[in-house]
Amino acid sequence: MMSIRKVSLRSAATLVSPAAAQLRVRLSTGPQQQQKTFYEFRTYCIRPEQNAAFLKLTNEKVHLRTAHSELIGYWSVEYGGLNQVFHIWKYDSYAQRAGVRAALAQDPSWISEYISKAIPMLRSQDNEVTYLVPWSHLQRPPQEGGVYELVSYHMRPGGPAVWADAFQAAVTSHDAPGYGKLLGAFHSEVGKLNRVHALQWFESADHRAEVRHRSHTDSRLVAAVRDSVVHLDSQKNKLMFPCPFSPMK
After folding, report:
1. pLDDT, tens digit, for every residue of 62-102?
2. Pair 91, 146 in one domain
3. Range of the domain at 63
4. Per-residue confidence at 230, pLDDT binned at 50, 70, 90?
5. DSSP codes of every residue in the chain
6. Of 107, 130, 153, which one is at a domain's C-terminal end?
């Protein structure tokens, strides 16, 4: 009797009603990450007296680093963080990144010509693993130059199942003629969790300021932002200019 009862209970547990299955979907934190490709965000804080020297050295020697993996963009932060650089690196997998790091450690040119000189110029380094959100694709700006804005949103816990639609509506509402150009939307995987980033491009810092003021009176944007802000814990941004050697200019 005991063995039959166990079998019966086990069989009953496998029968999940459609309503229960739908409840599980609603309780999910969001769609599973399907792409192995990820983007490493790196932020370096440079010693103020070494800022120009660091940028010069990197301009001359960055080819030693890009020989190992793909650089998406490299920017100098102008507003929202002084004496900082921000760069994005693309990897097809964690195994690839581990291989790149191992190869760099054995690259005598990289060590002697760049890293041994650059490290003393830095105050700190920070990195974060991010993925493109499912609806976003990495794009290039419509023209070279301009100013880039990285807006980072720290969302309240709950996951994309709770806030993804509202976040998408708010971010894409700014990607319209006369406004800025959304180049990519990313969510964090390693680093500060529940964080999403929007990388945007504007013709100039003044154009960005004009767009910012205009958006406050655009009912379409205001409505989208209001629906999203209820899921927001905090946000910050920085305006950046591409370095001469940056692939994304």
Report:
1. 999 999 999 999 999 999 999 999 999 999 999 999 999 99
2. no
3. 36-130
4. confident
5. -HHHHHHHHHHHHH---HHHHHHHHHHS-SPPP----EEEEEEEEEPGGGHHHHHHHHHHHHHHHHTTSEEEEEEEEEESSTTEEEEEEEES-HHHHHHHHHHHHT-HHIIIIIIHHHGGGEEEEEEEEEEE-TT------SSSSSEEEEEEEEEPTT-HHHHHHHHHHHHHTTBSTTSBEEEEEEEEEESSSSEEEEEEEES-HHHHHHHHHHHTT-HHHHHHHHHHHTTEEEEEEEEEEE-TT-S--
6. 130
